[in-house]
Amino acid sequence: MKVYFIGAGPGAPDLITVRGARLLGQCRLILYAGSLVPEAVLEHAAPDAERYNTAELNLDEQVALYRRAQQGGLDVARVHSGDPAIYGATAEQMRALRELDIPYEVVPGVSSFTASAAALGAELTRPNVTQTIILTRVSGRASPVPERENLAGLAAHGASLCVFLGGNQLAGIVAELRAGYPDDTPVALVQRASQPEERRHVATLGTVLDDIRPSEWALTTMLIVSPALAGVEEAQGSRLYAPEYAHRFRRAVKEEE
User: Does position 207 have pLDDT exceeding 80, yes or no?
Assistant: First the structure.
């Protein structure tokens, strides 16, 4: 038997990877993060597979299911939202699996930060603007953030910054970010990216809270603050596809004299 940590993607059932969908359909036991993974994603699962919503289970109860699957020779699909490598709480599960000598494999997924950029029709890395993306979150009861990674310090880089799981602390997040970014820096809120309920709010750091009720954005919201979101029409593009730019796969087109 084997446990597959499957990235379900941002929520749209057709944004799970082909590999993830195939394995989900093959596994007889499914553990999924029901607070974040929509039921629609489970349409890829076999109808008669056992299903457990891990939002209702502590780690010991999940490990007990892994042990039962091991005894019964059942493959397990452990379905996480987005990509399992980002705020997936997978490390403690993997440690338990190693102690039980249960093999596991990680199947990557589409992250909510890339789905949010797609919803905005935006590129988060632009030449001469920023070539860096910072992924972070604010402290919660379950997962504190080290003080050296405080938002004000990260904002000082002036890069594209994506804040996960912070919708219930929007006012405090904006206040910290204003210590490092100018008030006219573009900001976008994307809630439930890729899902039917998706909605977006685009503003600047100085005005983002003016026209919304923060309480309505408390759950499943990505905050992106980035200079790359400004002046897209006038922006200088990459030279990668410029006719006069040559590389190992393409010759340059010389201008006619």
Answer: yes
In this structure, the number of other CB atoms found within 10 A of the CB of residue 37 comes to 22
pLDDT digits over 74-94, tens only? 999 999 999 999 998 899 999
Residues 104-113: tens digit of each pLDDT: 999 999 999 9
pLDDT at 123 over 50: yes
Mapping DSSP onto H, E and C, the string for the chain reads CCEEEEECECCCHHHCCHHHHHHHHHCCEEEECCCCCCHHHHHHCCCCCEEEEHHHCCHHHHHHHHHHHHHHCCCEEEEECECCCCCCCCHHHHHHHHHCCCCEEEECCCCHHHHHHHHHCCCCCECCCECCEEEEECCCCCCCCCHHHCHHHHHCCCCEEEEECCHHHHHHHHHHHCCCCCCCCEEEEEECCCCCCCEEEEEECCCCCCCCCHHHHCCCEEEEECHHHCCCCCCCCCCCCCCCCCECCECCCCCCC
Question: Rounded to an integer, what distance in angstroms lies between the CA atom of residue 98 and that of residue 121?
Answer: 41
C-alpha to C-alpha distance for 8 and 23, rounded to whole angstroms: 11
Among 71, 72, 63, smallest CA distance to 31 is for 63
Higher pLDDT pick, 255 / 6:
6
Among residues 57, 60, 58, 67, which one has the least CA distance to residue 29?
Answer: 67
Of 43-47, 89-93, 229-233, minimum mean pLDDT range? 229-233
